[in-house]
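Researcher: I'm preparing a figure for a lab meeting and need a structural model of a single chain. I don't have an experimental structure, so a prediction will have to do for now. The sequence is pasted below. Please return the structure as tokens so I can convert it later.
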Amino acid sequence: MTTRRIEPVSFQRFATDFDGFSADLGGSFARYGFAVISDHPLEQARIEAATAAAKAFFALPDAVKRRYVAGVGGQRGYTPFGVETAKDAKHFDLKEFWHMGRDLPQGHPFRALMPDNVWPDEVPQFHTEIAWLFGALDAMGRKVLEAIAVYLKLDRHFFDATVDEGNSILRLLHYPPVPQDGPNIRAGAHEDINVITLLLGAEEAGLEVLEKDGGWLAINPPPGALVCNIGDMLQRLTNRVLPSTTHRVVNPAPERRGFPRYSTPFFLHFNPDYEIRTLPGCITPEHPDQGWAPITADAFLMERLREIKLL
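Model: Understood. Here is the structure written out token by token.
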């Protein structure tokens, strides 16, 4: 385990020193594939209300939760404990989760790719609070992409039209207590599929990032901070200038084994028809062309969902 620390970048600088904010945020992404954003504008009381709604759902009997298994590939509703398995892993992850996606009107061309959301009747506040969190993180993610665009020397609003109808997912995660040692861990080593991930709830220990030297770096953000990381789609677009870094959630220390862990990652995606094609400005002597063929965001997503056994 390495002892370095990813220094938080204050979101207050978005309004007061945007260029400096972009440089520091982008530098953290380029170095680690991860960044920590402090002083974000998301209302803590609403975050806590959404977390409480998620906890209330996960506390329901297993048979009740399984009524909400819906859609293809776990893209909406409930995915039970013991299903998701990291790519190339032999053992499933110790987690269960709920997915909410974008609501689309009747007749929208992407409706075939983004099914309707489902909502648990047993937790009345669930719909309102979780939908708020989806919208808040979606808006925050677009601001982060503004900073990334400037770091990459693109127009500040380059990404606006690429994600405005993206197949983004809010995941409510519950890692139950871990009663004993075993081969399974809470989340096996993996990279995220999407553009960027915004994570709330990483204060409970366990999230670790694979360093370039092969060591694991624990991510211990200050209370209320937002952890953000690069996904495979953006790595592919930027020719690995911004790397999608391997990370995992390890099992707790013995004194914390009786405690569950909750987190709410938001996986921000490109619009399904967006073609992920290497940006010419990201091909340099330091970053020679990886030779990735262009691929639509939806085709890439389907390919990866099969790899992690959700399809």
